[in-house]
Amino acid sequence: MAIQWFPGHMHLTKKAIAERIKEIDVVIELLDARLPGSSANPMLAELTGSKPALKVLNKQDLADPARTALWLDYYNRQPGTRAIGLDASMSTPAKALIEACHTLAPTRGSMVKPMRVLICGIPNVGKSTLINTLTGKRATKTGDEAGITKVEQRLVLADGFYLWDTPGMLWPRIIVAKSGYNLAASGAIGRNAFEEEEVALELLDYLIPNYPAMLESRYKLKLTPESTDEQVLEEIGRKRGAVLSKGRINLQKAAEIVIYEFRAATLGRVTLETPEEFAQWLAAGQLLDAERQVKKDKIETSRLVKLKKIPRSAKPDLR
């Protein structure tokens, strides 16, 4: 299953960013610390070009701290980029953001040369909650649902520091299959775009080898090297009373339990990818996407030849 979700207002967000970026000094991209690679928008890199970037790994209190350290090191080694972690327990997140932005753009930040910052992120990454914390008031609507913020707004974070907030934005086509599932599990994608059971199975398929002790502790399971995601989901349903007539397991209910407890971190502090894993998934996705494009081009060229729109001799060798 390919998971895609790009509502109409996201097209407007893309246009707004393309216009706003001309006068921006630093771009803050809010990432989900549980899936830093999958929650990084590749379209944003195209829109913002070479602007200094601050990668903020939000919800780090829900993520695996050892893996968060790996991701912070990965981003901090990239040119023109800083990375910091944030979570709901931090009392002065504004100070951390302002200091990081000044590091990236040291000549900006006065009333004469104010710091102009654009903050972006995928839906439901916690951006609205963070902004409300930064401003000390309910500046934006929040909720555990993707796509709540739908308009751009400017906020004054400090003297000489202006912050433009944009609605959460995904990208039109997710070429990394694993990223689609991770985004769905995190709540970044609307519920109508995926099947909970399939997402829960993909989630369990990763958790079984990477976080077996958490699964065993939370659901009172005994995992073996032969345990499969289907078996574990059924056992979770049985343990939690998601049982239908004649002992059948309500897999939909079991899937909802797994996804909810991952999002709430009642399962434990989990990160669904390392920098190395995501690099491998991305390379595989790019290769598959290139192969799809070759097939698509071949079909289109054949169609044009058949319609005599182009001469047969112009047909390229796309083997």
Notes on the structure:
The chain has 319 residues and is an alpha/beta fold. The chain is built from eleven helices and six strands. It has helices spanning 8-20, 42-48, 65-76, 93-104, 127-135, 177-186, 196-210, 212-219, 229-239, 251-263, 275-306, and strands at residues 26-32, 53-58, 81-85, 115-121, 153-158, 161-165. It has a six-stranded mixed β-sheet, sandwiched between helices. A hairpin with a 2-residue loop joins strand 5 and strand 6. Helix 6 packs across helix 7 and helix 7 crosses helix 10. It is globular and about 75 Å long.
Shape: globular
Helix/strand/pairing category: alpha/beta
User: Can you tell me the residue ranges where pLDDT is under 50 for at least 5 consecutive residues?
Assistant: 139-150
Q: How would you name the oligomeric state of the polypeptide chains in this document? A: single chain
| Strand arrangement in the largest pleated sheet | 3-2-1-4-6-5
Radius of gyration: 22 Å
Level of helix content? 40-55%
Q: Would you summarize the structure shown here?
A:
The protein has 319 residues and is an alpha/beta fold. It is built from eleven helices and six strands.
Descriptors for this entry?
single chain; 319 residues; alpha/beta
Question: What does the secondary structure layout of this molecule look like, with pairings?
Answer:
Elements: H1 8-20, E1 26-32, H2 42-48, E2 53-58, H3 65-76, E3 81-85, H4 93-104, E4 115-121, H5 127-135, E5 153-158, E6 161-165, H6 177-186, H7 196-210, H8 212-219, H9 229-239, H10 251-263, H11 275-306
Parallel strand pairs: 1-2, 1-4, 2-3, 4-6
Antiparallel strand pairs: 5-6
